[in-house]
User: Fold these one by one.
Assistant:
Number 1:
Amino acid sequence: MSELKVYHLPGAWGLATVSPFCLKLDSFLKMAGIDHQSITASTPFPGPKKKAPWIEYQGRTIGDSTLIIDFLKEEFDADPDAHLTDQQRATAIAIQRLVEENLYWVMVYDRWCRDENWPILKGTVLGSIPAPVRMFIAPVARRSVKKQLAGHGMGLHSAQELNAIAAKDIGALAGLLGDGPWFFGDRISGADATVYSLLANIAFVAFESPMKAMINGHPNLVAWLGRFKDENYPEDN
Ligand SMILES: N[C@@H](CCC(=O)N[C@@H](CS)C(=O)NCC(=O)O)C(=O)O
């Protein structure tokens, strides 16, 4: 059995995990072919940063999907970005920031603040917490997420403003992908995993989000989502 233990939040709707950061790591592990034990965590709190994902490996515990991926690239000498040029690597960082530091927070707003999504969230993201504990934890977690959203700034916007922000980001991703087939041409790379992990968590889940229609408005993104899934998660089709 592999000594690499990977802790992630629960999966649903055919996704290995409904956490974009956990799904990014899962996709990286698949693309890099790194053997590991995948462990579902009920909450992110046991992780070293109190966020998911995290890993344990040879006595070390590491949190943060990007730091974990950087570590694993070195440790296992496996890099799905090895073929990228310096300019493509720089663009990949800009894409990652757009996805993880901006667009992700619109998804968080949709999941945690829209009342119609609240029962769905309790049954999935919080679904593996035993019911009596969940009754207590769920409202506390919701308050904490709303605080994080306000601190970030995304939580201060109106629904209309959020839609405009999301439409710009999704339009930019569609523009960067162009005719593809992947973000950097003919070969898949980590940028594809980064974008997939968020867009799949919007397009393929039961949470209501205006972003679903925005994604569907870009046929190249829709085709690419299917392509990424076929390539990396054929068993989920
Ligand atoms: N920068 C971190 C972000 C991880 C993150 O925010 N994970 C979410 C789940 S998608 C989480 O654990 N949130 C719990 C919280 O913030 O309390 C990474 O790349 O791993």
Number 2:
Amino acid sequence: MKKYIFGLTVCFISISACNYDIGEKLYPKATTCDTTNVTFKNTIQPILANNCVSCHSTGFTQGGVNLDSYTNVAIWAKNGKLYGSMAHNGTASPMPKGGNKLDDCTIQKVKKWVDNGYPNN
Ligand code: HEC
């Protein structure tokens, strides 16, 4: 019985070690998202222009949400719905409406900007 448990333990350790190695290869440092130089002009505005402004502009203001200028975006940054809608975290209607969730790095950049106090930079 003792031998059996010992064998099982060794087996278990080697399996988890293996899984760990494979994991490293399959997902090599998935955390390389650079959020150091996030600005409104160079980061946030292009993200919104590419994914959101088609439905959220002065001419076509879906849901009463206008994301075409800093002043208008700041409203939604402040109430948490800009990030919440992109993160699909249940705090706002998931966006982009009818489309795929944006990639994690893009969403992290938005979060960083909002957490920084959504500066007009
Ligand atoms: C295809 C059109 C469309 C696109 C693209 C789109 N939205 Fe929306 N959005 C809507 C509509 C319609 C509503 C109002 C109805 C609803 O909440 O689902 C809305 C509502 C919202 C709201 C308010 C949600 C709430 O819970 O009060 C926010 C914030 C928002 N959108 C942000 C975004 C952001 C950020 C993007 C880009 C990542 C985006 N939207 C892309 C159509 C769109």
